[in-house]
């Protein structure tokens, strides 16, 4: 923070506290020329105003809050770039990666800086670490039957995964539904854990990298509509099948059933990540699609990923 803003915040904060002291002293002075307890000559709705001082308990409470405010500003950050007598921080806010975060935690401990977030994480790890370790040592095939573990996995999911996949795990446009049993890379326990641990990078190039003109694009989309069992123009779909065989089959298979090894979606099951209308299919083919899921092994660690895996698997395997 620049010196200007440090001075501005400090002056403004201390001025407000000082103004409260002045206002309180002014309100406790009787300079009206009217005897204390006498009428001020104002009556409204049958209520008469008397020249009474502020209640002492209220004044004392106000003075206590002022003193507390000054002590707080001296001990904790609050006056611009001033760090406070305790050197306390809410978190290491300058970090931009997990590596920087870990390094900042070590540096803060060595410097004796109190980071509230780091202390809470350390306390949580000490309390819950043994529980996650026990879960991690349990085979996933057994863990999916542990109701308590699934509840823990559900809470971890809400904290870390719901932003993309939704609190009900049903996904949204561009983010997979995890409850329908339709998987790009496979829905067995080992594959789900691999996906969460290492992340996924799905990329379809524009037009699949093929020289497709607009008429072929329209026909190809019509063929995809046919593959999913919907009403279609048979002549146009037949033309589109020829375009499909130019190269689309290399990823999606001869019958359009997809390829889990490559993460190429099944085009014949009427389940779509970005939408299945003909217009959206044409857009997907023309412009391509790129989807990225981050790797969570460095963020959550394998023990927590192990529990989340069991929970995600349970969503489509009741």
TrEMBL record:
<dbReference type="InterPro" id="IPR004678">
    <property type="entry name" value="Cyt_c_oxidase_cbb3_su3"/>
</dbReference>
<dbReference type="GO" id="GO:1902600">
    <property type="term" value="P:proton transmembrane transport"/>
</dbReference>
<dbReference type="GO" id="GO:0006119">
    <property type="term" value="P:oxidative phosphorylation"/>
</dbReference>
<keyword id="KW-0408">Iron</keyword>
<comment type="similarity">
    <text>Belongs to the CcoP / FixP family.</text>
</comment>
<dbReference type="Pfam" id="PF14715">
    <property type="entry name" value="FixP_N"/>
</dbReference>
<keyword id="KW-0406">Ion transport</keyword>
<dbReference type="InterPro" id="IPR032858">
    <property type="entry name" value="CcoP_N"/>
</dbReference>
<keyword id="KW-0560">Oxidoreductase</keyword>
<comment type="pathway">
    <text>Energy metabolism; oxidative phosphorylation.</text>
</comment>
<keyword id="KW-0812">Transmembrane</keyword>
<dbReference type="GO" id="GO:0016491">
    <property type="term" value="F:oxidoreductase activity"/>
</dbReference>
<keyword id="KW-0249">Electron transport</keyword>
<dbReference type="InterPro" id="IPR009056">
    <property type="entry name" value="Cyt_c-like_dom"/>
</dbReference>
<dbReference type="InterPro" id="IPR050597">
    <property type="entry name" value="Cytochrome_c_Oxidase_Subunit"/>
</dbReference>
<feature type="domain" description="Cytochrome c">
    <location>
        <begin position="148"/>
        <end position="228"/>
    </location>
</feature>
<keyword id="KW-0472">Membrane</keyword>
<feature type="transmembrane region" description="Helical">
    <location>
        <begin position="57"/>
        <end position="76"/>
    </location>
</feature>
<keyword id="KW-0479">Metal-binding</keyword>
<keyword id="KW-0375">Hydrogen ion transport</keyword>
<feature type="binding site" description="axial binding residue">
    <location>
        <position position="204"/>
    </location>
    <ligand>
        <name>heme c 2</name>
    </ligand>
</feature>
<feature type="domain" description="Cytochrome c">
    <location>
        <begin position="235"/>
        <end position="316"/>
    </location>
</feature>
<keyword id="KW-1133">Transmembrane helix</keyword>
<dbReference type="GO" id="GO:0009055">
    <property type="term" value="F:electron transfer activity"/>
</dbReference>
<comment type="subunit">
    <text>Component of the cbb3-type cytochrome c oxidase.</text>
</comment>
<dbReference type="InterPro" id="IPR038414">
    <property type="entry name" value="CcoP_N_sf"/>
</dbReference>
<feature type="binding site" description="covalent">
    <location>
        <position position="161"/>
    </location>
    <ligand>
        <name>heme c 1</name>
    </ligand>
</feature>
<keyword id="KW-0349">Heme</keyword>
<dbReference type="Pfam" id="PF13442">
    <property type="entry name" value="Cytochrome_CBB3"/>
</dbReference>
<feature type="binding site" description="covalent">
    <location>
        <position position="251"/>
    </location>
    <ligand>
        <name>heme c 2</name>
    </ligand>
</feature>
<dbReference type="InterPro" id="IPR036909">
    <property type="entry name" value="Cyt_c-like_dom_sf"/>
</dbReference>
<feature type="transmembrane region" description="Helical">
    <location>
        <begin position="7"/>
        <end position="26"/>
    </location>
</feature>
<keyword id="KW-0677">Repeat</keyword>
<feature type="binding site" description="axial binding residue">
    <location>
        <position position="252"/>
    </location>
    <ligand>
        <name>heme c 2</name>
    </ligand>
</feature>
<protein>
    <recommendedName>
        <fullName>Cbb3-type cytochrome c oxidase subunit</fullName>
    </recommendedName>
</protein>
<feature type="binding site" description="covalent">
    <location>
        <position position="164"/>
    </location>
    <ligand>
        <name>heme c 1</name>
    </ligand>
</feature>
<dbReference type="GO" id="GO:0005506">
    <property type="term" value="F:iron ion binding"/>
</dbReference>
<dbReference type="InterPro" id="IPR008168">
    <property type="entry name" value="Cyt_C_IC"/>
</dbReference>
<dbReference type="GO" id="GO:0005886">
    <property type="term" value="C:plasma membrane"/>
</dbReference>
<feature type="binding site" description="covalent">
    <location>
        <position position="248"/>
    </location>
    <ligand>
        <name>heme c 2</name>
    </ligand>
</feature>
<feature type="binding site" description="axial binding residue">
    <location>
        <position position="165"/>
    </location>
    <ligand>
        <name>heme c 1</name>
    </ligand>
</feature>
<keyword id="KW-1003">Cell membrane</keyword>
């Amino acid at each position: 923070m620049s010196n200007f803003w440090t001075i501005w915040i400090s002056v403004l904060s201390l001025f407000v506290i000082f103004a409260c002291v002045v206002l309180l002293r002014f309100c406790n002075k009787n300079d009206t020329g009217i005897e204390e307890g006498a009428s001020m000559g104002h009556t409204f709705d049958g209520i008469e105003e008397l020249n009474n001082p502020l209640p002492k308990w209220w004044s004392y409470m106000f003075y206590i809050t002022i003193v507390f405010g000054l002590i707080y500003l001296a001990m904790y950050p609050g006056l611009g770039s001033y760090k406070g007598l305790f050197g306390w921080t809410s978190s290491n806010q300058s970090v931009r990666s997990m590596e920087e975060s870990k390094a900042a935690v070590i540096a803060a401990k060595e410097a004796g800086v109190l980071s509230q977030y780091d202390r809470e994480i350390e306390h949580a790890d000490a309390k819950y670490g043994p529980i996650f370790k026990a879960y991690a040592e349990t085979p996933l095939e057994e863990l999916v039957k542990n109701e308590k573990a699934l509840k823990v996995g559900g809470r971890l999911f809400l904290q870390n995964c719901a932003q993309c996949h939704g609190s009900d795990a049903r996904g949204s446009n561009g983010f997979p539904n995890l409850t329908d049993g339709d998987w790009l890379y496979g829905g067995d326990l080992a594959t789900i854990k691999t996906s969460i641990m290492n992340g996924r990078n799905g990329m379809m190039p524009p037009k699949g990298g093929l020289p497709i003109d607009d008429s072929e694009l329209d026909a190809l989309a019509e063929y995809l509509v046919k593959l999913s069992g919907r009403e279609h123009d048979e002549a146009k779909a037949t033309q589109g099948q020829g375009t499909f065989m130019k190269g689309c089959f290399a990823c999606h298979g001869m019958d359009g059933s997809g390829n889990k090894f490559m993460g190429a979606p099944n085009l014949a099951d009427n389940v779509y990540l970005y939408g299945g209308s003909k217009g959206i299919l044409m857009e997907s083919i023309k412009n391509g699609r790129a989807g990225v899921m981050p790797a969570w092994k460095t963020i959550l660690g394998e023990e927590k990923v192990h529990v989340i895996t069991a929970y995600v698997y349970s969503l489509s395997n009741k």
